[in-house]
Amino acid sequence: MIPVSQALDALFALADPLGVETMPLDRAVGRVLADDAVARRDQPPFAASSMDGYALKRAEADMHAQLKVIGESAAGHRFEGRVGAGQCVRIFTGAPVPEGTDMVIIQENVTRQGDVISIVDGPNDSDNIRPAGGDFATGTTLSAPRILSPQQIALLASMNIAAVPVIRQPHVALISTGDELVLPGEDPGPDQIIASNTFGLRAMLENLGCIARVLPIARDNEASLRMAFKLAEGNDLVVTIGGASVGDHDLVAGVAADLGMEQSFYKVAMRPGKPLMAGRIGDMAMVGLPGNPVSAMVCGHVFLVPMLRAMLGLGHAPAPRARAVLRADLTGNGPREHYMRAVVEAGEVTAFDRQDSSLLTVLADANALLVRPPNDGPRRAGDSVDYIPI
Ligand code: AMP
Ligand code: MG
Q1: Which of 43, 50, 104, 280 has CB 3.0 to 4.6 Å from 135, enough for a Cys bridge?
Q2: Beta bridge partners of 164
Q3: Overall fold of domain 48-130
Q4: In the CATH hierarchy, which fold is given to the domain comprising 26-42+137-167?
Q5: Are strands 37-38 and 141-142 parallel, antiparallel or unpaired?
Q6: Which ligand gives the minimal distance to the CA of 241?
Q7: Is the confidence at residue 204, as pLDDT, over 80?
Q8: Which CATH architecture has domain 4-18+169-311?
Q9: Exposed e or buried b for every residue in 3-13, given b needs 16+ CB within 10 A?
Q10: How far is the CA of 177 from the centre of ligand 1 (A)?
Q11: Is the pTM for the entire model greater than 0.85?
């Protein structure tokens, strides 16, 4: 058995960085930006009015002053002339501020008769002008790598960047193993249960921007498992679920070895999730997860997501942790790192009483994995502990 950190390093070593492709902006959300994006223009490209009103000289904007309206500047249509003494220009939000003016008085602060305005309410300090380049200037960068958010897509559009280089999406094949499993929606026999792990993991990986496929369930015989591995060919990563222990029907390690898997490790000092294996089959990375539903999902958070983030060029980092204060005492931990299902609320963390690795109801109610280091002593309410938000 190896510690979690060592297993994670081995997974990073298996995570070959993926190539880059160009993606139009309207399909780039959630993708990993591969190169810094550089603004090609200033925004706004000219000093622009932020209000509807009249552009004039601040020096002339006295209470009761009267000014002649000599033209109009609207969004997309600037006023071409120059504004002289005693003059102003009708202006609208987003329109270029005319030459010879340095402020916009809002229309609520003037009365207008014909082409003459009178200032009836004192102008305040604001000039109501957005300076040229006030949002960003040519050369401003959005740095890579990062997962593009809707807000950043808007920024890239504003920078006049129509397509971006992004990291190719990792292709992941998910294989459930077991004679007892049927797919959700099917009619289970009396000894059967529904395969849940592949669906939970698929959701987790698709959230990260992977293309995850649930392959047909492999039955507990070598031919079926071989067939499933065959179907997985061409993916970046194949993940098996179950069949990874040492029972008579646990065939994954044997079949993978027959297929030429170079094994990186087998068994990790953690709870849940001990019978974890990983290696490489040809060009494909392979991870064998334990079958118990909670084990599989915990291993997904602790191992698969960091590994796929590494493939996506987002660095080699474990699942991010935070700290919270224990609400109740905890007994000492054994020699394996324990990822306890827990709820964090208002800075306090509470571990569930029931920690069996088959209980999806408990996992579904959890928003955190409370991390107990190996051989951690008893902990008192009020102690600060690590957790992984999930
Ligand atoms: P195994 O590692 O194959 O012995 O599986 C351990 C436990 O997890 C058994 O109770 C299996 O029925 C269950 N299990 C295995 N694979 C899945 C799956 N894909 N979905 C739900 N339960 C599973
Ligand atoms: Mg099994």
Answers
A1: 43
A2: 23
A3: Molybdopterin biosynthesis moeA protein; domain 3 (2.170.190)
A4: Molybdopterin biosynthesis moea protein, domain 2 (3.90.105)
A5: antiparallel
A6: 1
A7: yes
A8: 3-Layer(aba) Sandwich (3.40)
A9: ebeebbebbbe
A10: 7
A11: yes
